[in-house]
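Throughout our pipeline, every protein is held as a single compact record rather than as scattered files. The record that follows is passed on verbatim for readers who wish to inspect the format:
___
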Amino acid sequence: MKKILSIMFCLCAIMAVQAQVIEEGDMFWDGQVLYTVSEIRLGKIVYMQGVDASGNDYELTLEKVGKKAGNYKLIPSRQAEEPPFRCTWNSSVTYVRKNGMYFLAVKNASKQIVETLLLTPDNLENNIAHQEEAQNRTLASMASGYLMNKELTSHFSTAELKKYINKLSRKKSRTVIEDTNLQLMKSEIQSRK
């Protein structure tokens, strides 16, 4: 019986580690660009190719950090001069898989989330349609129940963002969506200064 329990525990541990690993073919949406993982080099360099609605091509490269599953850093792609998000090269990127949400959280030097890339099974056209639908929603309907991205937060006024920052900050216990959206809204306000 002890052997069976030990084996089951090991299998659960292995599955938990594998659950936070980016795989070839995974697609991530940042609100503007759909990135597809095209290659994982040496088991630790994740190379993604992206495309936007206008057909422009993008590259995104992450490098695995440490032994803990889901920890990466943003590194320059082949011809990249500037990082694609509100952060610097070598910024932390965490693969979050919590409460049914699966996304990459890009963080600045202060460890604040500045961008999200949602894991998606949808093609570019469907992601664009979802984004357009979300842009017509109110911040009140999104703050607690919809994982936002930088493109979405940029559509709201500073006053609206501050109102919901205060509202979410006062909550004793926040969901993964609320905590992520709170950080994104703070990042949007900081970018406007």
